[in-house]
TrEMBL record:
Pathway: Polyol metabolism; myo-inositol degradation into acetyl-CoA; acetyl-CoA from myo-inositol: step 2/7. GO terms for molecular function: manganese ion binding; myo-inosose-2 dehydratase activity. PANTHER family: HYDROXYPYRUVATE ISOMERASE, INOSOSE DEHYDRATASE. Belongs to the IolE/MocC family. Its EC number is 4.2.1.44. It is an enzyme of class 4 (lyase). It catalyses: scyllo-inosose = 3D-3,5/4-trihydroxycyclohexane-1,2-dione + H2O. Pfam families: AP_endonuc_2 (PF01261). It comes from Marinisporobacter balticus. Residues 38-294 form the Xylose isomerase-like TIM barrel domain. The gene is iolE. Its cofactor is glutathione; Co(2+); Mn(2+). This is Inosose dehydratase. InterPro entries: IolE (IPR023952), IolE/MocC (IPR030823), IolE/XylAMocC-like (IPR050312), Xyl_isomerase-like_sf (IPR036237), Xyl_isomerase-like_TIM-brl (IPR013022). One of its GO terms (biological process) is inositol catabolic process.
Amino acid sequence: MLSKAKIKLGIAPIAWTNDDLPELGSENTFEQCISEMALAGFKGSEVGNKYPKDPKELKKALDLRGVQICNAWFSCFFTTKPEEETIEAFMKHRDFLYEVGAKVIGCSEQGKSIQGLDKPICDEKPVFTDEEWEKLAKGMNKLAVLAAEKGMKVSLHHHMGTGVQTLAEVDRFMEMTNDEVYLLFDTGHMYFSEGNQDAVDAIIEKYADKIVHVHLKDVREDVLKTLKEEKWSFLKGVKEGIFTVPGDGIVSFDHTFRVLENINYEGWMVVEAEQDPAKANPLEYAMKARKFIAEKTGL
């Protein structure tokens, strides 16, 4: 079984209020969100757009509920903007996360990303040039050094609609960056990208020792099929329920949990399943996810 002493369970606020689609869950407050996280049995949270920007205020609200910040999304633009812009923004982000006690920073290269655009997500994803790959690798290596100054680790979040989405692109990224750049492993995004379980199992097998943060996300197979046929955008897919909590979709988590157990994984596993909260009650689905994880892992 996975170690209760080494693994902490968190959940992302994106199930309550969606940062990319603010109309989803606009009625849900920050206090409701973190209270329901705690009620469902989770000890960690990532950062949402309604969270207080002041570290002390945020930490006080979380401490009352026995919840802590474990990570927060950071957008890099190494491929499309001057390197200094990303580095300057990263240092502010790093310092905020340090103040609230996080040890990992999840980064996504958003240069040329179509995840927020009205474009068919499976047909028009960006492909980086060799020069853009070099800029990305060089930049991420620099972020790793900056994170280490605070005893933190940088991880790459492979994500639909970006230039680091597919299994082959993750391979290239990991080959080009140094040993201090890590991976945020996302079950749902890898299944969505490749359309099969083999890719999910392959990536965690191959990069087990480089994974410092895990997103547990499931995919609804029928919605994925329709998305591809009707050429939906990423955000259209989210609205229609492409993602759900682990145990409620097509993704198998058996191999993921087994590999994490075998490597004696230490860190956070975070349920991150953005849905329309009007269709998928966040507390209900948080509790469903918590029950599934307990049954599968003993955590």
